[in-house]
Amino acid sequence: MTSSSSTCVPAIFTVWFRLNMPESPRYTMEVKGDVEKAARDLHAVLGDRDKMGEEMVTFGQHFGKWKNLKVLLGTSLSWFFLDIAFYGLSLNQSYVLQAIGYSSKGMAPYDAMWTEAVGNMIISLMGTVPGYWFTVFLIERMGRIRIQLMGFAMLTAIFVVLSTGFHKIQETAVALFIALFTLAQFFFNFGPNTTTFVLPSEVFPTRFRSTAHGISAASGKLGAIIATFGFNQLVELGGADGDHAFLPQTLGIFSGIMFLGFLTTFWIPETKGKSLEQICEEIENSDKK
Fold this sequence. Notes:
Layout: H1 2-20, H2 25-30, H3 35-46, H4 59-63, H5 66-90, H6 93-99, H7 109-142, H8 144-164, H9 166-172, H10 174-189, H11 192-198, H12 206-235, H13 247-264, H14 276-288
Helix pairs in contact: 5-11, 5-12, 5-13, 6-7, 7-8, 7-10, 8-10, 8-11, 8-13
């Protein structure tokens, strides 16, 4: 009974909001016959701009201009590069922990699983979760682009250190390796793993926003697919299965990919402190020049 009651709560809220949601101006005018209310609703959306009679720009026409296309490339490529490294590591944290000796193959199965779980929990609680909350509190103060650039820059540096000093750190300071790996997870989330979701929902005109966001997200998932299927094969190059012989070089490759994400971010405009209407108006004014 309790379970059934709780599952109906979202439906109740949905019905309430739907009943109180204003109708479109076209429906208000043509079906309800309330021309004045339709005009007020339309004015609330468009302000003083009169869009009636203007020629509608197509997707191809809009993104046929380099200044608009580079924004789409920026959101798509930065998301693509991010997800290669993010999913390559996040889905394979246990491999990394094993490779540095945190989880020993000589342990009993239960002890090995427990040790890996503790390691993953430390990384999540110390890196992933705080990173998200830092973004929540600072995104309107620092701006999306600044956070994304900072995240990509820090990740580039961290992966360079992990790659070049892998064996030295592995032999002398496993705790340092875990700390750096945790810091990487922190800057994934106080960085591009959050902003790559936010920026495509703001930087495009309303008419193309959902399509452009979909293209950006699909690019990210393509990177995730590459990482998911390629990471395990890549880290085993040059050694026997389970040795993870190519892991240091893989981390070096990730540093280069993060640097590419850093560069493509410069194609994306900042949206801090702007409403969607302001952003759309700026784009339209720019297209008229």
